[in-house]
Amino acid sequence: MIDKNSKVILDVKGLKTYFKTDAGIVKAVDGIDFTVHQGETLGIVGESGCGKSVTNLSVMRLIQSPPGKTVAGEVMFQETDLLKISEAEMRNVRGNKISMIFQDPMTSLNPFLKISTQMIETIRLHEKNVSKAEALSRSIEMLKKVGIPGAEKRIFCYPHQFSGGMRQRVMIAMALSCNANLLIADEPTTALDVTIQAQILELIQKVNVEMKTAVILITHDLGVVAGMCDNVCVMYAGKIVEKAPTDKIYKFPAHPYTEGLIQSVPRMDKSGEKGKLFSIEGQPPNVIDLPPCCAFHPRCHKAIEGLCSRCNPPTHMLDEDHEVTCWLYGTDQEKSAALKEADARQASKEASK
Amino acid sequence: MAKYVIKRLLGIIPTMFIIITLSFFIVRVAPGGPFDGEKVLPEVVKRNIEAKYHMDEPLLKQYGRYILGILEGDLGPSYKYKDHDVNYFIGNSLPNSMILGTIAMCLAVLFGVTFGILAAVNQNSWVDYLSMGLAVIGISIPLFVICPVLQLVFAMKLHWLPTSGWFKSGDSWATVVLPSVALSFSYFANIARLMRSSMLETLRSDYIRTAKAKGMKRSTIIFKHAMKGALLPIVSYLGPAFAGIITGSVVVEQVFRVPGLGKFFVQSSFNRDYTLIVGVVLVYSMILVAMNFIVDVVYSFLDPRISYQ
Predict the structure, then answer these.
(1) Residue-wise pLDDT tens digits, B260-289
(2) In what order do the strands lie in the sheet with A8-21?
(3) Does the reported pTM lie above 0.90?
(4) Cβ B213–A94 below 8 Å, yes or no?
């Protein structure tokens, strides 16, 4: 657990990453803010395509450009804005101060290079004065730490000689070999089977506690979040709709979407009517040219007629650390102002026709 | 690995036997024969000639005689050129084609791989368009146009290089340049296009993203992380391509007067020169089989996931 006063190591403000496609501009990440404290585990949850991965690739500046581009925002990491520094400086951050592990361990390691080569190069890339032998022994140390049996020999193997779970362990060892301050885990267990999942998550948790590495855990599995994270951001269509400490999100989900997500986790103790599993109706929206409205309103059972479909919902603090973006919590004043604005927008649109 | 090599080498024997057998009989099915000319020979003369070349014997006996000859390394006499045998023609022309083909292939690989990588890492820039433009030209312009154009520009107009000839026949070394450049053109084009697409594909793969996330430099990523994987398709292309290029090209050899093997592929068929046809087929398939074998071995060096038992 983190204490409230620990230092903020990552502060993302108003991040927007858009992709130019033939069909229009895809606003994959559209103005999101979040912070990560030292030693914290932050969960980012949402359906496929909601912008979870793009958010973190934007933080790492690994968005393929073209077509993608981070058009606005600030990514403050240890007092520097990562979006403003040079590519060479950014390379020094990647793998050194911020590390990433990816979804599919089967394809994320280079099949043509030995594990030793891949680990040593990472260490020697960021710490120039480390000899090859030193880097090797450190890599073996790391592999032992993540629980690879016979690491002294196994390090000279190729990735295809490891199982999926072992490969993800290797990925984690590699990511942590430079003592990164922040580990971004992009669905680290999605491609693994359940027993291995638990082991890998436990390992990430151990790293988080022992090495005081902050972790951003991207997942669509709320069960994982409950067991691992201090705070949670729920994303929908490129925006964060709710942000709160994990226990609050589970006890008092404020956004109808969060509520739906929590209800759709299968539970042994509480089954829905006739044992049916709850699911949120409909599909996530296409994020090309979204109108100014709540992106969730077509699937929302609490949507307010004439309001949610026309106006962008405001963000409210329900508590000092519980933030939600939904019209259910809007004041009357906000509602009438927003409606007036929407009318004006419509009027000017019609006038221009 | 050693066991695998021996197994593969032994496998070549039946393959070659089948190829020789098929071509031996197929060429004899074609109408006409080596001694049918415009002038009809007197019956006695024809019988004498046929007796000299054992063509009066039953076909199976001829076949047996031919196979025994091959086992002794003798590909038989040419039916068309008196006093010369097939060994003589192939022995004299194959080295020339091999020299020319090897130089051309080196050029093609060197420029093809370079332009392919440049195009891939600068995708959709002018470098990409230039490289791929060159490649399209290389693929679409036929050799019989490329050859005379090269002669016209570099020999006739600029006087940098000789129009034709061959250094072994007493001409200068510079005679090698134009035919090898001409020959390399289409191979260069194919390699460049293959290299570009496979490099692009590799650069989009997950493990390259991992390398980027580790903070690796672009050049390190391309040469250390992406190169091996991207080269695999090139290697499989090079096997058969190399077999084709070192057995000569009729057009290039004719235009530049290179005494190579290429022309025999065509001439021997026109002449119904049975032994020569089977001889060049045999040489070509030998090289092809050998190249495929080399490709497989190179594969196991490039890709650790491939191991042979």
Answers:
(1) 888 888 888 888 888 888 888 998 999 999
(2) A24-37, A8-21, A68-77, A80-81
(3) no
(4) yes
